[in-house]
Fold this sequence. Notes:
Layout: H1 9-13, H2 17-49, H3 54-61, H4 64-97, H5 103-115, H6 118-129, H7 136-141, H8 150-161, H9 163-176, H10 179-186, H11 191-220, H12 223-229, H13 239-248, H14 252-292
Amino acid sequence: MSSRFAIPSSALLQPSIQQRVGRVVLITAALLFLALFLVLPVAAVFAQALSQGLKMYRDSVRQEDVLSALRLTGLVACIAVPLNMLFGIAASWAIARFEFHGKSLLITLIDVPLAVSPVVAGLMYVEVFGLHGWLGPWLSEHNLHVIFAVPGIVLATVFVTFPFVARELIPFMQAQGSDEEVAAVVLGANGWSVFWRITLPNIKWALLYGTILAASRSIGEFGAVSVVSGHIRGQTTTLPLQVEMLYNEYNFTAAFAAASLLTLAAIVTLVLKKIIEVTSGVHQHMEEKEVKS
Length: 293
C-alpha cells in the first residue's frame, strides 16, 4: 500500500509553481535594482561626458588640471598600495602563524579604518601634522610640509586602504595552515627561503585580490584626501577632488569626463577581480585533483 502512493523522487526535486514564481520575482527585483542603482548611473556618467561630442570629451580629459590630478592620483596609488602590501603580508603572517601578547589588539587596530569616517581620519592627520597640531611647529621649523601637500595625501590614503590586503590574507592563511612551512624549516630552510618558495606562492591570489581592492579604494578616495589636500589646483587635487571642483564651477562636461575616467578604473577593477576569482578557483581545483590522484 505504501509503495502504491509513493511520490517519485524526481517529482520531489522539481520546484513547485509557487517556488518558480518566487524565483522569477526575486530575480526580476534584483535585476531592476541593479539597473536602477548601478547600470543607469554609470550610463548617465558616460552619456553626460559624451553629450557634446567626442572632441569635447577628448579636450576635457586633456586639460592640464585633469592630467595633473590624474598623475597625482597614480602617484599616490603607486606609493600607498605597495606599503599596504608590505603591511598586509607582515600583519597576516604574524597573526596567522604566531601567538603573542597584543594579537587581539592588532586585529582590532586593523579594522579601525573600516569603522572611522574618512573625514575624521583626515582631521586626525591635520591635528597631528597641521600647522597648529602636535608636530606642526617642528615641521614648520624644518621646512617640512605634510598637510596641504602630497605626503599628507599619501598618509590619508594609506590609512583608509591598509585593512584590505590584511583582511584578505589573514583568514586565507589561517585556513591554509602552516604544515608546509614547518616541514621546510625541519628540512633546514631558513625564513626567507620559506617565505619566497612556500608562503608567497601559496598566498599569491589572495594577495593580488587584496591589492586590487586597495588600489581601487586609493584611486577613488575622497573624504580623507579632501581634508588634508587643501584643494590647491594643479598641486594637491586628486582626480575625485578635480571632479568636485569642475562640477562646482558648473563645468559639467569636464566634470563628467573626469568622472568617466574613475568609472573606467572601477570597471577595470571589477574585471580583474573576476579574472582572479576564476583563475584562483581553477588553480585550486587542479591542485585538489593532483592531491587526490
